[in-house]
């Protein structure tokens, strides 16, 4: 009888031990295992972050610069306009007579003579109100075409655009000779209108 009681107590002890061991084993965590407390956890990746390339900003993008120098043979349009590489270029800082104005054809052929046989280098400065490219134009020997035309008395300085750099090169009486160009610089376009009307009337009589 005593032996039976001892065996029963031993069996009960074994069962209690096994039960406690299984419960404690279920709550064990591995060394690298995180215990969740029910709240979302923030984890930091050890991998290097990939930098995002900036988005293209069309509104603030700067366009690629256009060519600032043209060089080549020149086709002469009139006394202050040439064409280089299919680009119409106006001589910087001077004003020559229009082709149909007094001395207009003479100015054109003087510029033809200057450019003939030379490559002309045009250093672009701006665009004028007519969309023409304005440039300082030089011959291969360094001569400034604007200055040369003024020295020939077939163009006058246009101070509004040149700052007066060619005024000292003007021949005496050049502004009286090129009076229509002078009138344009002074904003007296009515003089042009009167001249053009007179020329039209003369052509109609012929």
UniProtKB/TrEMBL annotation:
InterPro entries tied to this protein: SNase_OB-fold_sf, Staphylococal_nuclease_OB-fold
Protein's UniProt keywords contain Nuclease: yes
Extent of Polar residues compositional bias: 27-46
Residue spans crossing the bilayer: none
Keywords: Endonuclease, Hydrolase, Nuclease
Segments of this protein annotated with the region Disordered: 27-54
Pfam family, any one: SNase
Highest taxon, organism lineage: Bacteria
SMART domains, A to Z: SNc
Molecular-function annotations in GO: endonuclease activity; hydrolase activity
Chain ranges of the TNase-like domain: 76-194
Keyword Hydrolase in record: yes
Name this protein carries in UniProt: Succinoglycan biosynthesis protein ExoI
Species per Swiss-Prot/TrEMBL record: Roseovarius albus
């Amino acid at each position: 009888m005593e032996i039976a009681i001892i065996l029963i107590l031993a069996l009960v002890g074994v069962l209690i031990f096994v039960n406690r061991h299984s419960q404690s084993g279920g709550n064990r965590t591995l060394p690298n295992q995180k215990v969740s407390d029910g709240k979302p956890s923030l984890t930091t990746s050890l991998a290097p972050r990939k930098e995002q390339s900036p988005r293209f900003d069309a509104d603030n993008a700067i366009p690629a610069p256009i060519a600032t120098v043209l060089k080549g043979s020149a086709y002469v349009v009139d006394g202050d306009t040439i064409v280089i590489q299919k680009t119409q270029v106006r001589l910087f800082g001077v004003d020559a007579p229009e082709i149909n104005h007094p001395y207009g054809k003479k100015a054109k052929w003087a510029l033809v003579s200057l450019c003939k046989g030379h490559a002309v280098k045009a250093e672009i400065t701006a665009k004028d109100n007519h969309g023409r490219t304005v440039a300082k134009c030089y011959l291969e020997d360094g001569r400034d075409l604007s200055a040369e035309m003024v020295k020939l008395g077939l163009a006058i300085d246009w101070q509004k655009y040149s700052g007066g750099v060619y005024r000292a090169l003007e021949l005496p009486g050049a502004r009286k000779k090129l009076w229509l160009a002078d009138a344009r610089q002074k904003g007296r376009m009515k003089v042009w209108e009167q001249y053009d009307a007179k020329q039209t009337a003369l052509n109609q009589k012929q």
